[in-house]
Amino acid sequence: MKKSKLARLLATACCFAMLLTACSSPTPSESESTPPSSTGADTEEKVLTFAIGAETTSLSTLYMNNSLCCTSKLVYENLVDFDNGEIVPGLAESWEYNDDQTELTFYLRQGVTFHNGEPFNAEAVKTNLDHKQSNPSFYTLKGITDITEMEIVDDYTITLHYDHPFYAYLQDFCWSDVCPMSAPEFIIPGDFQTISGVAGTGPYIYDEYVAGEYTRFVRNEDYWGEKPYWDEIIVKYIPDSTSRLQALQTGEIDMIYGASLLSYEEYDQALTMDGIAGQMADKDTRVQIITTNATRPYMSDLRVRQAVAYAIDKEELSQATSNGYEPAADMIVTRDTPYADVELETTYDYNPDKANQLLDEAGWAMNESTGIREKDGEPLNLLLTLESDYSATSMPTAEVIKSQLAEVGIDVTIYGTEQMQWYADYLEGKFDLTLWHSQFAFASPHCWFTPMDSMVPQTPSLPGIEGSDEFLATIKNLTNMVDEQEVRNTYTYLFNFDVGTVLDIPLTYQKDMIVYNTDKISGYTFTGTPYFFDILSLEPAE
Q1: Peptide linkage before 189 cis (omega within 30 of 0)
Q2: What are the residues whose beta carbons fall under 8 Å from the beta carbon of 456, sequence distance 6 or more?
Q3: What percent of the chain has pLDDT over 70?
């Protein structure tokens, strides 16, 4: 692969992965002021304080660090949202397709303004969508990239034209980290790196940023929807998870939200603290997955890939890494994902005897002195890569898998790197196994499959799998489908090919959680996309 092509693919894959997760400073002032106490009885203001693991300099619809997704809905809002399996109104009060589903019309809320005073209207929507459409990171979101024309019907009506129908266009507008509407003033045409300001239409305004310390959000008194209870939100930058837990215990912060900031062990630890309660979402967030690389010499043999799948004890993995909170997964998408209710023709439940049998058949003989299988004098060593900082369970998961595969004579080398290096390595196919995750329910299954031709870990693997040409052609045809039964039949085939060929190995269904100070908070109702915190779902203590 030429270097220039790899660089372009890397940039696109990096941005795409941010859909799953070089900027200028945001416009709110940086000051040396001290944030108000979250528990002081003397103040009349109602202040909520919680922790984040990254600076809010990347709080943008361009890209967003995983640990900032608990703040995105404070500021930004979508045209539509996904809740409990249904698409519901957001900044668009309603929508409709034309008869052949090549036109999607949004009817927008009136009387809504951005935090900088600009009106929210059809022109603002067009400015946002023009910018997103020209961004290569939106490759997989056909609802945006496939727009051929945007027609402003009137101030509060906009029609999107497509040259072909696709059943999932509307779903692509549900991403709470990259698809919300941003104030046009801060959108720079052709620039997908610079964050020139933070302003949406949400219930809170990005007010004050103090580098290395905190960001203050103040209530949007002109908010069009339900008025939030808290006057101010203070999010403190606490990059270390142990320090976040200590801050919760001492009352420095009132809550911690999300698996990006809290491990399951820390969740259980928090529940033992006086005055601290917690909740875990019923719905799954994503699926933790191992993708195999079938173009690597050892992994090109289906029997070796199958042996890896049979050797993984998902129940043991769940207990070891999540205290049993993450259920063992049999599908590559969450259980509430549309069209995921299919019966798989082939599954790989834990069966070390079967794993050993397959490895024997593949010619990998056990070296009793080393405990590692060999063929032609070469040991069976597999390279397992991962993004080290993706979540608290990433490295522990890799260590458990290494231990389990050793039981059947497979040696594993773990290579954990920062995000950009991980992207570069998988684009070049420098892995035998890589650890990552599926998409959210609203984005699956279509956003799971559509980028497989160019920018995800499956991309370098598929050329090594028999039948992959038909598989990729079917994915391409999918993006022109609207008939319900045809879509369902197509996904049945795609799921079975993916799991059956051991392109991907589903591990566990990931969960999100919250722990909080009961003096300030009485409870939280998780939304249909639990990864994203919704301040309006937080119940203050009476």
Answers
A1: no
A2: 13, 16, 291, 426
A3: 92
